[in-house]
Design a protein that fits this description.
- The protein contains 4 helices and 5 strands, in the order ααββαβαββ.
- By secondary structure, it is α+β, with helices and mostly antiparallel strands.
- Strands 2-1-3-4-5 form a 5-stranded mixed β-sheet, sandwiched between helices.
């Protein structure tokens, strides 16, 4: 037979606390003013040994002033694809208190034209962002030499 104290223990174990800690001053965070700025920052964050080897999907987390709160690696896949779990993507955005994000992924082939799958995930993330009030500013497909911006091409 359970005691009253044992019945209350589940509430203590189930308590959730959300916190956001940063070691970077707001004025020192990179400011994203264009797709070029996002691309340059993406290249700096990518492992050069992987960019032409396997596909990775990351997000740039932004505050209301388009200052970078962080970069989160959502997934790493194979040569031609990677899986994007919306729950993990938005968990990172919510934990960082982001008001906007930019999706980033590479094509190991070096070709930056978006595939049908790229367009589908962009639409899906944008729709989820609307519900959560997190703006999807852009989606960049990158290679070491160039990039494709969904926003610059009017498809986001």
């Amino acid at each position: 037979m359970e005691t009253a104290k044992e019945k209350q223990d589940w509430r203590i174990a189930s308590e959730i606390e959300l916190i956001y800690k940063t070691k970077v001053k707001a004025s020192e965070r990179p400011h994203i003013t264009s797709s070029v700025a996002a691309y340059k920052l993406a290249l700096k964050s990518w492992n050069p040994n992987k960019i032409e080897f396997l596909e990775q999907f990351k997000i740039l987390l932004l505050n209301k002033s388009n200052r970078v709160l962080g970069i989160y690696e959502v997934s790493t896949g194979g040569i031609t694809s990677t899986i994007v779990d919306l729950r993990l993507l938005f968990t990172a955005a919510l934990k960082a208190n982001a008001t906007a994000l930019i999706m980033l992924h590479n094509h190991p082939s070096g070709k930056t034209r978006p595939s049908a799958a790229d367009k589908r995930i962009t639409k899906k993330v944008k729709e989820a962002g609307i519900i959560l009030d997190i703006e999807v500013v852009d989606h960049l497909i990158i290679s070491p030499e160039s990039y494709y911006s969904f926003a610059d091409n009017g498809i986001i």
